[in-house]
């Protein structure tokens, strides 16, 4: 589904590459986790794959299409759940979803019904006419997710979709993502929650300093790393214990 | 089209839910218009109805001083107060107690009469018209020094007022000199009962104003003020519009839109339609205030008869130009702290260049050239064409075309800048 070939990104004025000569293939129907410490290049990679920023070199295809020649078509096929809420605080949940859905040319009664259905699944049916600014963090995260899946994308990119939410909201979000995956959506997901990634992802790649240091199923990575019992053990063994503060 | 409509609906909802913002958008321009018109109208009245006290120090005591005092006193502008001495008057004016002091030098009347008599005698003698029996021996001529009437102005007095006073006094003195010359001729060659000369001005001036339906068209202060300040208010749409765009960047919604199959022009299109409607409503409210509120508060009524369509056409294109600039600033600015002060200051600069405060024709040559590229100048010119010159649509085509081109250009730059910015 996704083929990344020698992809690199160096921001203007930066000394180091944020993503360096990265090769990766993600199969259709996978839930693929991109794991790494702060500043490892996860968000940069997702931003390139979702056309938010342009690579410095290299290329990639999604569903055999590249962004250079098929930007609009690809944007119809992918969904992005950004790290920030990316919603209008003064619009209601329903109005936000109507607006962002309209940008995919979605309209009519079936579209409205779909919004209602999604809100119901994610436990927000009673809040559909409330303004986003009155929502809790967990509620905003759930609306943020719905806004990215209304057009039923083939590939869904999620950048820290459960950060800062309570356990209940996290469980609902993960369950919904698993349901989407079962319906055929390929999911690329970044997170710092390694326990969550261990159970949720079919395959993961650990990235550090812009390069992939390990990839495989969570079970295989644990098995191949001496004295590792969890994905977190693998992660620390490969990326070290040093703090990754950067400004 | 569906995406444009959705964007427009979204913008409308966002704007309509910001009650404070809406109030500012609609009420502040009206407040601005009313306050400015009252000030300008009342200051115009003040000059004509309130007398400005001035000090006059008379060292002459003759008929010239008396004529100057009478002339100043009979004018509707000044209240003449006799000053004790030049030094005291100077002190009082320079400390701001009075705006003006006039010091009439000693022997002004006497010396003027003597100087004129000498001149007249000289002329008559050249024509062989000396009085009979007069001593044929030439008189020994006394040197008469030129006199100066001294003016002291408060340093805070504005240049325009100074010029007005100087011109007035200059005119008065010229008239006194002329009348003295006439009088001297009369004394030398005529008798006192039969006047030889008519001393009234022969040349006068009359202002010819446009006439429509046998009625003179004289624009009132409302017609002068409303176009300028309405335009100023329309351009202030730049501030809320650019803030709205910066807010979207901070909320992350712009990032989401960039990942969606919608082009930037469509997003800007939605904003343009809503904010253009705001501009036109603002303008309509300002006209309504001019028509219905101005007469209630003692201001002249705004006459829009037969001009309404053209006025709204100008407002529409001026609104587009303002929105184009707002879209550009909103695209480039990264924070509200950048967008708001820059937008507001830029509008003031455009207004100054456009001739809202000072007419373009009295600006320095270079500024006149710069003014030619100010969209507010084009808008003001079009408004004046419609409001004051009774122009047709044909006459305003050049101005509204420039305003539309400005909108296209600024929007295009905003779109290109946005594309470039994405290529980080």
UniProtKB/TrEMBL annotation, chain A:
Write one Pfam family the protein is assigned to: ABC_tran
Q: Which domain of life is it from?
A: Bacteria
Show the InterPro entries listed in the entry: AAA+_ATPase, ABC_transporter-like_ATP-bd, ABC_transporter-like_CS, P-loop_NTPase
What Gene Ontology terms describe what this protein does at the molecular function level?
ATP binding; ATP hydrolysis activity
SUPFAM superfamilies, alphabetized: P-loop containing nucleoside triphosphate hydrolases
Domain named ABC transporter: which ranges? 2-234
Alphabetically ordered keywords of this record: ATP-binding, Nucleotide-binding
Protein name, per record:
ABC transporter ATP-binding protein
Which organism was this protein described from?
Patiriisocius marinistellae
